[in-house]
Design a protein that fits this description.
single chain, alpha+beta, Ribosomal Protein L24e, Chain: T, two-stranded antiparallel ribbon, two-stranded antiparallel sheet, 3 helices, about 35% helix, about 30% strand, elongated
Length: about 90
């Protein structure tokens, strides 16, 4: 499974470990991914997603999963989240 957030697209970054003697060795910065179950009010069901902890805070700040998806950029969303966004917008339109 890819180390990528399904809502924000945040993934693995690379950098250096730097010792006191300034020796540099390559390392990876992994996102803090969590398996969460979020509730969609428009669809009246729960959805399981693998998202970063920072994305979870953003979802709560924006007022829930539906509000986050409607504001989100389509390029950042995974295929599952993009399909979910289309379902939510269709449910709210009707």
């Amino acid at each position: 499974m890819a180390m990528r957030c399904e809502l924000t697209g945040k993934g693995v970054m690379t950098g250096n470990n730097v010792s006191h003697a300034l020796n540099r060795t390559r390392r990876r910065f992994k996102p803090n991914l969590c398996n969460v179950t979020l509730i969609s009010d428009a669809l009246a069901r729960s959805v399981k997603l693998r998202i970063a902890a920072s994305a979870l805070r953003t979802v709560e700040a924006r007022g829930g999963l539906d509000a986050f998806l409607l504001k989100a950029n389509d390029g950042d969303l995974s295929d599952r989240a993009l399909a979910l966004k289309q379902q939510v917008s269709k449910a709210l339109a009707s």
